[in-house]
Amino acid sequence: MIRYFDIPIYRYIEYLKSDTENRKKTQIIKQMTKKETFEKRFAERYADADLSNEEAYYEHANQLMDDYENYEQATKNLLDALDGNDVLVQMLTDACTQEDFDPVVWMVEKRGLDLEEAMKNPDYAAVIAKAHSRYIESQAEERALDEELRRNLPASLEAIGQCAKEMGLTDENKNACVAQMWQLGEDMVKGILPVTVFQLLIKGQQYDLRMAEQAQQKAAHKQELAEAYEKGKREGLNIRIDEHLRQVHSVPVGIEATQTPVSTAPKAKRKQKNPFVDADWK
């Protein structure tokens, strides 16, 4: 919950001061129709808005509603915090009427604060010292954040420029997108979380999930194909081996199943020589 001291006093003062001016403007434009009045006030607030562009028109209108709702909630929180706190109400009332308002002087004048006596009180002095230490720490944190900003921003802008160049974007498109990023950061500090940004992030996450699932499915399918290929090779080899064995076992013993018998010419019978007829007989 936003506490009353989280709302800068000067913002509340500015609101009270501008209220009178707004009332004067309202009296001037009473003779105009409500549509003309709205368009006039809208054009004054968003001078660069193209009212003929319906999308741009409603974009600014939505931003205006977001700002109003955020301000309305902050105002309610402030009024709730002021309820029952007469001292703070009186201080804010006086602050709106005094140009050189000093809360310490006001506490001395209106509440009788004795600074010298207060600092003599060791307990109160310790409280003041702790408060001052917290202030010093907060200033150091702000300086550290500023230093990080100066260090990181140039590299970020350079990376964005390179990305925009690769995407073929113009400088105008790039600068408009960077401006929206800055606006988003400012809105988040105020507690404004645009639904459009939420939808964009969700769509991006869902897209990444779908791409990851598709990659897993492709990898699984590729593995299945490889396993099927290896299985087919093994089964094909087994079939050939089985066929070869069947051929071997189907041939009678003593004859090779895969070799055709070689035909040889019959041996000529040796002529029996007669010792009484053949002269070369020995």
Report on the architecture of this protein:
- This protein is mostly helical and 282 residues long.
- Among the domains are: 132-192; 194-240.
- Helices cover 74% and strands 0% of the residues.
- It contains nine helices and no strands.
- The radius of gyration is 48 Å and the shape is elongated.
- 0% of the residues are buried.
Order of H and E elements: HHHHHHHHH
Fraction of residues in helices? Answer: over 70%
Overall 3D shape = elongated
User: How is the main sheet built?
Assistant: none
In the predicted model, the low-confidence regions spanning at least 5 consecutive residues are: 1-7
Q: What number is the mean pLDDT?
A: 76
Helix tally equals 9
Give the strand content: under 5%
Radius of gyration: 48 Å
Task: State the total count of DSSP E strands.
Answer: 0
First-last Cα distance: 141 Å
Q: Helix/strand-derived class?
A: mainly alpha
